Amino acid sequence: MGNDGGSAVLSVLTRRGRFLEALLEGPVRKDDLAKRLGVSRSTVDRAICDLERFDLVACADCRCRLTLAGELALAEYEEFLDRVTVIADASDVLSALPPTVPLERAFVDGATVVRVGDDPSRSILEAQLTGTHQRVFVTETVSHLVAASLDAIDDGLECEFVFTSETLDDLATEFRGPVSAALAAGRVELREATTTLPYSLVLSRHDPTGRVVASLVVTSDDGLEAIVSNDSEPAVAWAESTFASLWQQASPLSVLRE
């Protein structure tokens, strides 16, 4: 593939990626490639020359085909584009978080971002954070989040809550009755965190399928900003590991403190 390095390959993929895509189904003559892409034959010649330079295509008997290197490079490039597109789409949400925030790239890959807007609604949380079992880390009081979970507990949801000290104070003031009842009924496990994060974390399991959706609830000084959700295996694995660490370090509570 030559000695120009990955940056040069990335550059040619950016400029000539559609020519590689057009060869995915098999070898194509240059004239047919020009017709398929709606470009001139001279444009095809230049593109193929660029791609041949890095061994991404090979031409013989007037037909051009992808090499194995070309197939692999195209797959990686398309995955890279997908990741960058998601990050670009969520840049306003991600920029609200500190640059040192513990958040793995796997969580962003393929994530869905729901922006709450100026009028946060419980219906948004209820739609995004449903399930039969929830594990919730609350780093900042989000009344809609807590209220939605408590309502779902009445309908059979099992929940593991981890609250920071500050949010526990708010919980005891605003939700003492429902939380105390859920604790007494054994439908909730409650712990007080010894650490914090710049977002709330929710893991929602859906039975009988066992599907798990991991969500970050992002807030700002103005309140609830967005929910970033992902159900991919790497994203869920990262979220489960993060929650497990928070849970193990937290102190169990059997009742809300006065």
Describe the protein's architecture and organization:
This protein is an alpha+beta fold and 258 residues long. The chain has 2 domains: 6-80, Winged helix-like DNA-binding domain superfamily/Winged helix DNA-binding domain (Arc Repressor Mutant, subunit A), CATH 1.10.10; 92-253, Endonuclease Chain A (Endonuclease, Chain A, 2-Layer Sandwich). The chain is 48% helix and 23% strand. It has 11 helices and 11 strands. The protein has helices spanning 6-22, 30-37, 41-53, 68-89, 91-94, 105-108, 122-128, 143-154, 165-174, 176-185, 233-249; strands spanning 28-29, 57-60, 63-66, 112-115, 133-138, 158-163, 188-192, 200-206, 211-220, 223-230, 251-253. The strands form 2 sheets. It has an 8-stranded mixed β-sheet, sandwiched between helices. Strands 1-3-2 form a 3-stranded antiparallel β-sheet. α8 links the parallel β5 and β6. α1 (6-22) packs across α3 (41-53), α1 packs across α4 and α7 crosses α8. The longest helix has 22 residues, at 68-89. The mean pLDDT is 81.
Large-scale geometry: elongated
Overall radius of gyration: 25 Å
Assign the CATH architecture of the largest domain: 2-Layer Sandwich
The helix fraction, in percent, is 40-55%
Number of strands: 11
Class by helix and strand content?
alpha+beta
In spatial order, strands of the major sheet run 4-10-9-8-5-6-7-11
Query: CATH H-level name of the largest domain... which superfamily?
Result: Endonuclease Chain A
The level 1 CATH classification of the largest domain is Alpha Beta
Overall mean confidence score, pLDDT: 81
What profile does the largest beta sheet have?
Answer: 8 strands, mixed
Query: Spans with pLDDT under 50 lasting ≥5 residues?
Result: none
Q: Count up the helices.
A: 11
Distance between the termini: 69 Å
Tell me the CATH topology of the largest domain: Endonuclease, Chain A
Order of helices and strands: HEHHEEHHHEHEHEHHEEEEHE
Strand residue percentage: 15-25%
Structurally, the number of domains stands at 2
